[in-house]
Amino acid sequence: MFTILIGIANGIGKYRGLEFLEPCSKTDPNLEGCLAKTANVLVEHFRQARAENLMRVALLAEAGYNGLPQLGYSEVEPIILDELHIALGGGPDGYKAQFMDINAKGVSSLKVTGLRARLSDDEVQLQLVLSIPRIRAAAKYRSSGTLILVQASGAGDYWGDYEGVKAKVFIRAKPFIVQDRRFLRLQQLKMDFSVQDIKMGVENVHDGNTILQAALNLFINSNSQELLKEMKPDLRRKLVQVMSGFVEKLFAQVPYDAWITE
What we know:
By secondary structure, the chain is of the alpha+beta class. The protein is 31% helix and 43% strand.
C-alpha cells in the first residue's frame, strides 16, 4: 500500500487526485490555523465526492465510486453502529432499552472550528473542536420495564434529530518512517460531545400499542437530554472506535509530510 501511494506522489502534499491537499509549514506562526483550513478542505472534498456519487450512483455503483476513492474510502455516510443500551431506574421493573442497527447521517457536514497542535520529533498531539449542524439517526429498538407508570415492554422503530452538535477530539500519534517517508501511527483518540437541541421518538410499535407509543414519545421528548446522558458512555465508546478507524486509515494513506513540512 505504501509503495503504491509513494509512487503516485507528484511532490510533497501533491498526490494524484489529492492536489487540493496543501501542506502547512511547521515554522508558520499560524500553523494551527493552516491545519484547521486543510482539515476543512479535506472535509469539503469528502462532501463533494459524496454529492457527486449520489448524482451518478446508478452509473458508478459497480465501480464503487463514493467518498474519496483515491484514499480508499467508501461512502463516509451513513455511520452505522451495532447497538446501544440505556437503563433507567433499578429493580426488576426498571426501564431498559436496546437500540440496534443504528444509522446516522449528517456527519459529513462537520466543520473544524478550533484546532490546537503540539508537534515534536517523536509525537504529534492535536485537539480539534468540531461543529455539526444536524445529525439524523434511525434504529430498531426493544425495551422492557415500567416507564411513567406504563408497562413499556415492546419494540419498534426509533428516530432522532440532533441539532447543534459540538465535539471535542484529542488525537495523539507517533511518526514513523517507511521508505524515507514519514507517516503517523495513531496512539490515542478521545472525544466528548454535546447536543444543543434533540427531537426523537418511536413509531411502528409492535402490536400497534398506541398508548405505549404515546407514553414513550411524551417521556422521550420531555427528557431528551437526560436520555442522551444515559446513552453517552456507550455512544462515546462506539464513536471513538469508528473515528479511530477513520483516522488510522487516513494516516496510513497520506504521509505526515503531506500535512506538515519542516
